[in-house]
Design a protein that fits this description.
By secondary structure, the protein is of the alpha+beta class. The protein has five helices and seven strands; from the N terminus they run E-H-H-H-E-E-E-H-E-H-E-E. It has a single domain, classed as 3-Layer(aba) Sandwich (Aminopeptidase).
């Protein structure tokens, strides 16, 4: 596996990984809600990765296995001077191979390189594997929150989100 900066040629694959994962975790009766969330995230972020993630304190990388993009991770500078792990996904056919753990460690290293001393991230109750990964990777649960508003970060609709932090 090789982790490298996102390139425009990665766009279609990154987009597919994002869409497929979100459709995979969609609960029965929530299809329209998730499709709305997917469209919002594509329009505001995923379809604009070069512009969105090229700002100071940001970054976006892909994990490549035998020439195929297997996963991705981004870092986004927050207004309070912290950095947030964003869009960490692994394609279905590459899951359970340690790619997520490697991407997370890589993002932490890049955050340190950028001078950050604290990193944050969040996940939903629909992603117990991600929650477990963050816990075993030394992240502390900062808070739980019921998300009622849909944004490019949350589906909304009363789903529980877990917010984690870690000192770097």
């Amino acid at each position: 596996m090789h982790i490298r900066p996102f390139a425009p040629a990665d766009h279609a694959r990154v987009r597919d990984i994002f869409i497929n994962w979100n459709r995979h975790i969609t609960q029965p009766g929530m299809e329209d809600l998730f499709e709305s969330y997917i469209r919002l995230a594509l329009n505001e972020e995923i379809d604009h990765i070069p512009e969105y993630y090229s700002r100071p304190g940001f970054g976006f990388w892909v994990a490549e296995v035998d020439g195929t993009v297997a996963g991705m991770v981004g870092l986004e500078r927050l207004e309070n001077g912290e950095v947030e792990v964003r869009r960490m996904y692994v394609a279905a056919e590459f899951r359970r191979q340690g790619i997520g753990r490697t991407l997370l460690a890589y993002a932490e290293d890049r955050a340190r390189d950028m001078g950050y001393t604290r990193i944050v991230l969040s996940t939903s109750a629909l992603q117990p594997q991600a929650k477990a990964l963050y816990e075993v990777s030394g992240y502390d649960l900062e808070r739980e929150e019921v998300s009622t508003t849909q944004t490019k970060r949350t589906v909304g609709s009363g789903l529980t989100r877990y917010y984690f932090e870690k000192a770097l």
